[in-house]
Design a protein that fits this description.
The structure holds two protein chains of two kinds. Chain A is mainly alpha-helical. Chain A contains twelve helices and two strands, in the order ααααββαααααααα. In chain B, the strands form four sheets. Chain B has a six-stranded mixed sheet, with helices on both faces.
Chain lengths: 324, 547
């Protein structure tokens, strides 16, 4: 019961946050030059002023910004995100269609970055200042310093073009019509390089943070106590150090989910993945304002949900934290 | 091994410090014995190497920076030096166990109390889960934890400091070790809790017949618990003997100096202040801390930290505020200086209301009431030269900078520091010197009242005595009034004309120090006084009848 109240309170707190994001995004988009009609007319190769004015009136774009904003928010409150003129579909349909790929990419990247980063960081810390540590730390620095677009292109050159091991882009092999396991494997093969490209910099973050955190926790009094009790190094690491060292890493995990969403724009575009990132990029180019606003809404919800989950995880990991 | 084989023998132990330390050897040819059923106190000031001795025995020194370079350590006749790490692990927590100083940080915050005791059993026995759980429960009962069945599932932060130390002791005793090393186990505890823990250690040690190496800096604790005493000074053993010999007839000059510095429990003859004007008056002061809570998280109970506290402080007088942690004594000191805003009551400084003073008035009044804080390192800005630290106050209050700095140099002389100290930074000084700087800073504004919050509790006993002497001396010379907050009744006895005893935000007893100590009226005061470690031991006046 206290948990339900906590969850409900967090949900209520999220409402003003999302509202502020949407209002801010709406106004910012209005500040940018050009609207949907400009883009449509551009595609048509030009049109006369009368037709343009009629189109604007039809889409409600001739109204003052405040009226447009109010209308948008009123519809948003009913989870109606409008019509995408580019995709000729309701925005919600377009979004749901793309959400799966992006979530898959993000979860895979985060999982990979977190597990490998934490493991490598812990190993580096336990062998601090040794050759192993130097190799791991240097590797981390390289990952950290390599931009994901560069990494993506290099991987495509090496693994797709030269070696032919992995597909260049897309989420499935076109016209192969795989089913069952073959389909899963096919999708997984398509996700290997995007996941690597997106996750390596985060892997470096977690690695560095975990290394520092383990080194710090290893010096704490309770680790000394455990040693005095006769605990061996392995036991110290798993039962006493790791759990305490993970706390700052988990904090970072939640904070970075939102930046990961930003990173997916680049990676999805390069690997032609039909996800939200790519959709966002195209919507900007095509001035598909409704779709863009939908993406912003969806990503804020995702970030808020993930932050909530992080707090739950944190409370679970740290006995001193109580949800309230 | 015969019955007479000591539990622990340390022979010619040498421990090297890393290059660039203040001395090459942390411990220089230390020899020491702990027999079965005996409590040996290893006493020394900070930096004497006493904790490293414990580390060497457990082989838990921070190697390779600090390492053993010579000597032997025998546990029940078995030489530990040659043992492989695996064998050492089998001994630790099993035949020799350790109790650490700070029970909050020495316990894993993420594991329950029961888990942490169980771990010892898991490591050293083949007992099944159920048998271990029973034994854990029995251990908690042995250390007199209230409601052990629910304590087993509690996390360290959910039990009090004293209970945490009981858990540490239960952990140490779980395997019935031959040797227990206790490193300042009661230093972080309140005086009443301290006495309980000391008694517990005594009781359990007698029951189990283990030998105890008890490390402490506090001669009161030594008097309370020791069978034999060894005094360590900068890594060298200067004196060793029975408790009675060392405490009452110390031979080495260093031991004599240490014991001479222990404040006695007999207050000096009372001085009369009936004719002196009142400089600080608190009238029914009130301060409540409301636990934080958001709009939706519901209300939490408020805590009255200062509840209806009234007192007068006359010119030249020292009023001690004594009590245990959480009694509200620090909150009183913060409220009268308006570092915290009181919720009710009146505080008058020199007849003027300070609680309702406006910004400008308050600033003028602040120069008349100044504070000295507990931690001299934390309360001095590390990026400022000493002269600027001291001159800062007067400059803020309008003194021309050049003049303020000249005065600052003058003040350094007053607190017995060399004028050369003016150009240096706080980290270049020792703890005692830093506290002198803190005092000079408080004096710079020529205040009438100094509020000192535990000003000597972070200092070694010999340094503490010097700082107390300085405070007493300045008080006479400058006709200062002192509001002296302390948990240490010995210190209060030495310096305070009157004391106010606080419990849970209320003053339960107030009176002339000598009277309160001789005939405490309130039950809580009696409890406090009877908990002072070594209260039956009167430090001998070793300065006068030097052999």
């Amino acid at each position: 019961m206290p948990f339900l109240i906590y969850a409900l309170r967090r949900a209520l707190q999220a409402v003003p946050v999302i509202l502020m994001i949407m209002v801010g995004a709406f106004l910012l988009l209005k500040l940018a030059p050009g609207d949907t009609v400009d883009a449509l007319v551009g595609d048509m190769g030009g049109a006369d002023a009368q037709f343009i004015a009629r189109l604007r009136a039809e889409y409600g774009l001739d109204q003052p910004v405040w009226v447009q904003l109010w209308r948008y928010l009123a519809k948003m409150a009913q989870f109606d995100f409008g019509w995408s003129y580019v995709y000729e579909q309701p925005v919600s349909v377009v979004l749901l269609d793309r959400l799966g790929v992006t979530l898959m990419l993000m979860c895979a990247s985060l999982f990979f970055a977190f597990t490998i980063g934490v493991a490598l960081g812990a190993i580096a810390a336990r062998r601090a200042y040794s050759v192993t540590d130097n190799v791991i730390s240097t590797l981390g620095l390289v990952f950290y310093a390599t931009p994901s677009f560069f990494l993506s292109l290099m991987m495509i050159v090496v693994f797709s073009v030269k070696l032919g091991w992995l597909p260049v882009g897309g989420i499935r092999t076109i016209a192969a019509f795989y089913t069952g396991w073959d389909h899963v494997l096919d999708v997984a093969r398509h996700l290997v390089m995007p996941t690597a490209a997106l996750s390596l910099i985060y892997l470096a973050f977690y690695l560095r943070l975990m290394r520092a955190s383990v080194l710090e926790v290893a010096e704490l009094d309770f680790v000394r106590t455990a040693r005095a009790k006769g605990a061996g190094e392995g036991r110290l690491m798993f039962h006493h150090i790791m759990r305490n060292a993970l706390l700052p890493v988990v904090t970072l995990l939640g904070l970075q989910f939102s930046t990961l969403l930003g990173g997916s724009v680049v990676v999805e575009t390069i690997f032609s993945l039909p996800g939200l990132g790519q959709l966002a990029y195209q919507s900007v180019i095509q001035r598909d304002m409704n779709t863009l606003m939908g993406i912003i809404f969806l990503s804020s919800v995702v970030v808020i949900v993930v932050n909530f989950l992080t707090d739950l995880l944190y409370a679970r990991l740290d006995s001193r934290i109580e949800l309230s | 091994m015969t019955a007479e084989t000591p539990v622990l023998q340390i022979e010619d132990l040498r421990v090297a410090l890393p290059e660039g330390s203040d001395r090459p050897l942390a411990l220089d040819r230390l020899s020491l014995e702990v027999k079965r059923g005996e409590i040996v106190c290893l006493v020394g000031e900070s930096g004497s190497g006493k904790s490293l001795a414990a580390g060497a025995v457990m082989r838990l020194l921070p190697e390779p920076a600090v390492r053993m370079t010579g000597g032997r350590i025998l546990l029940e006749g078995q030489d530990l030096a040659g043992l492989p790490e695996r064998e050492m692990r089998r001994l630790r927590g099993n035949r020799m166990a350790m109790v650490f100083q700070e029970p909050m940080t020495a316990l894993n915050p993420q594991k329950t109390v029961g888990w942490q005791i169980d771990e010892v059993l898991k490591l050293h026995t083949d007992l099944g889960r159920k048998a271990r759980a029973e034994r854990t429960l029995r251990m908690l009962e042995q250390v007199h934890i209230p409601d052990p069945r629910s304590a087993i599932h509690a996390y360290p932060h959910q039990v009090s400091g004293g209970q945490r130390q009981r858990v540490m002791i239960a952990m140490a005793l779980a395997m019935d070790p031959r040797l227990i090393i206790a490193d300042e186990p009661t230093t972080a505890l309140d005086v009443t809790t301290q006495l309980q823990i000391l008694r517990l250690i005594r009781e359990l040690q007698e029951g189990h017949g283990s030998g105890v190496l008890f490390i402490t800096h506090d001669f009161g604790v030594v008097a309370e618990i020791a069978d034999r005493v060894a005094v360590l000074r900068r890594g060298e053993l200067v004196e060793q003997g029975t408790a009675d010999e060392v405490l009452n007839r110390p031979r080495h000059p260093y031991t004599r100096a240490l014991i001479a510095a222990v404040p006695g429990l007999t207050p000096p003859a009372p001085r009369s202040f009936a004719d002196a004007p009142v400089v600080l008056r608190a009238d029914r002061m009130l301060k409540t801390f409301k636990a934080r809570g958001g709009l939706l998280s519901g209300r939490r109970e408020a805590v009255a930290a200062v509840d209806d506290v009234s007192f007068d402080l006359r010119r030249g007088e020292t009023l001690g505020i004594v009590g245990e942690s959480g009694s509200g004594k620090t909150t009183v000191s913060r409220c009268v200086t308006r570092l915290l805003d009181a919720d009710g009551g009146r505080v008058e400084l020199d007849g003027r209301d300070i609680l309702n003073a406006s910004g400008r008035e308050l600033r003028a009044m602040r120069s008349k009431i100044q504070m000295v804080f507990q931690d001299p390192m934390a309360s001095l800005n590390p990026r400022k030269r000493v002269v600027d630290l001291i001159a800062q106050g007067p400059i803020v209050h309008g003194t021309p900078p050049r003049e303020a700095r000249d005065q600052a140099r003058e003040l350094l002389r007053l607190v017995e520091l060399s004028p050369a100290a003016a150009e240096r930074y706080p980290h270049e000084f020792s703890g005692g010197q830093r506290q002198r700087i803190g005092i000079a800073r408080a004096l710079a504004l020529e205040p009438k009242v100094i509020v000192a919050d535990e000003p000597v509790s972070a200092l070694d006993v010999s340094v503490q005595a010097q700082v107390l002497r300085l405070l007493a001396d300045l008080r006479e010379r400058l006709d200062l009034s002192l509001l002296f907050v302390t948990h240490d009744l010995r210190v209060a006895a030495q310096l305070c004309d009157r004391v106010a005893v606080m419990e849970k935000g209320r003053v339960v007893e107030m009176g002339v120090t000598a009277d309160v100590f001789a005939e405490p009226q309130h039950e809580y005061t009696r409890k406090l006084l009877s908990s002072i470690p070594g209260r039956d031991w009167t430090p001998p006046d070793v300065r006068d009848n030097a052999a």
